Amino acid sequence: LVLPWANSQRGVCADSYFASVTSAEEMMQIGLRFIGVVKTATKKYPMGYLTRVELNEGRGQRVGVVLKNRNRSTMLAYVWMDRDRRYFISTAESLAEGKPYSRIRWRQQELPEQLFGEEDNEDPVRQELTVSQPKCLETYYDTCAAIDQHNRHRQDNLRIERKLETRNWDKRVATSTFGMYCVDTWLMYRGCTTDSLHPTPKLNQQEFYSTLAEELIDNNLQQVRTRKRAQRNNEERVIASALIVTDFINLAPQLRATSQKKKNSAGKITKHCSQGRCKVCYKGRPTTICSA
Questions:
Q1: What DSSP character marks residue 3?
Q2: Which tens digit of pLDDT belongs to each residue from 201-222?
């Protein structure tokens, strides 16, 4: 995903899906800087120390540790206190004071001490909450909105992980990466076909994904083929949809034995069949595949 920008010293901001010490090391090897939030991928991360360190000053306090190589700082792992602890890994920026962030939150007003027990609590009011953050976090949170928008396009609109459920880690990574490519293609199409005079593209997101899928069906590494799409009216679309539904109804689901085999902890293929799960016609962990 980032190889076109290798050796450019640009920064990569990642959420917990990609962020880890290994990811930071890989980015350094290809000449890119990295900032990410660590949640579950804690291998080689000093999570034990950072979870025990005391943060008595409340919101805005941070404590970090630095990895040095030949007396040169190469990686920074730190914890930052907001409402709860948040852990980060970075090869860019530092813990120097950055621009504080402010949020509007509901807060309960405290009564004067002499009125305790005489009056009810006052109604909550909206107040501006200002929290200090390091320069590293300022850079990361400036890009969080783009990450959330990209995840929303992939999870709520494309939904390829829900349509192709799997329990194999390699397939899960492959489908998620493919979904990211599809969303990037949609964002590029939208950016190239819209401007101030034409704020909306000709195809909406679902129509674009359908068109993209039809173009990908016949493509391979040796040659590229494109299908000519004729514009159909509403009546033709209704007839085509009815035919598709009829074909699916006439096709009875069947159970077929899977050809995939399990892998052991060392990654070697065993003689046991891979188990899956069908959400429609079978519950459990069968070694068969539903043809539907």
A1: G
A2: 888 999 999 988 888 877 766 6
Domain holding 155, by residue range, is 144-229
* Cβ 72 vs Cβ 3: under 8 Å: no
DSSP string, 160-184: HHHHS----HHHHHHHHHHHHHHHH
Q: Is residue 174 in a domain?
A: yes
Residues 36 and 90 in one domain: yes
| One-letter identity of residue 218 | D
d(CA 67, CA 64): 10
Q: Which residues, other chains included, contact 236 with Cβ-Cβ below 8 Å and sequence gap of 6+?
A: none
- In angstroms, the CA 63 to CA 94 distance is 11
What tokens appear for 173 in the block? 């990574």
Nearest to 186 by CA among 172, 201, 197: 201
Indicate whether 42 and 169 sit together in one domain: no
Confidence of residue 161 (pLDDT cuts 50, 70, 90): confident
A 10 A CB-CB count for 100 gives 11
CB 33 within 8 A of CB 12: yes
166 and 133 in one domain? no
Helix (H) or strand (E) holding 68: strand 62-68
Q: What is the Rg, in whole angstroms, of the alpha carbon atoms belonging to the chain?
A: 26
Instruction: Report the percent of the chain where pLDDT is more than 70.
Output: 75
Q: Rounded distance, CA 178 to CA 197, Å? A: 32
- Return the closest-CA partner of residue 81 out of 29, 121, 35, 134: 134
59-93 pLDDT tens trace: 899 999 998 887 777 899 999 998 899 999 999 88
Q: CB-hemisphere CA count at 13 Å for 54? A: 2
Residue with tokens 């899956």: 276
